[in-house]
Hints:
By secondary structure, the chain is of the alpha/beta class. 38% of the residues lie in helices and 21% in strands.
Amino acid sequence: MTPPTALTIAGSDSGGGAGIQADLRTFFAHGVHGLVALTAVTVQNSLGVQGFTEIPADVVTAQIKAVASDMGVNAAKTGMLATAEIIRSVAKTLDEVGPFPFVVDPVAASMTGHALLREDALEAIRTELFPRATLITPNLDEVRLLTGVSVVDAGSQRVAAEALLEFGSRWVLVKGGHMQGTVDCVDLLSDGREYIELSGPRYITENTHGGGDTLASAITASLAKGASVPDAVTAGKKFIERCVAEAYSLGAGVGPVSPFWVLGSS
């Protein structure tokens, strides 16, 4: 039986822990066939990003059209998009090949602080991608870049959700993984009417590379299989919790979260 398909529009991680590599192995773990539109090639390892080269926007959109016209897309997500030109081109192309559930993970910087998004691209994400998104999944650094809101507690997390929803997405997930001083990791999911707190354990580990990509792609995989947004996010949170618990050391820096537990080993 042919599995559902999910498209990742994102950059490559030469270290294999994030980007399209994380997306594809997460899709596989969910029994979903992964499709790819590569946006950038990064030079990176466990110590950080040393540079990147973006793919021409017309090549990015040609990839999307090629797979959508032949294989079909049940859901899609974005990761690193690098430039405003790529963002605008992706948005226009999705209008042509959709509709389908669409998750925007607004990747703006690496976990070590290296910029992965050029300055003019932030506004393009707000105005071009967010209004088309089923769900957006920013971390707290990205929330601050996008809205100016610094999330430090449950109250400011709700303020951030409301500010993000003004950009036009149907749902927003404000992730609490980077919130300091909390025992649990609490994410807030909202469509402006419902405010759903999703609480989970906070694991003490340095090996969290690819965590945001893995969560967004897990949600996308569930959406591709027909789940509602709240159900997909709940399942994605459970998945990433286990991946963080099973994270492993690799290289001299930050190791990746691991979906290998689905194979019965870690």
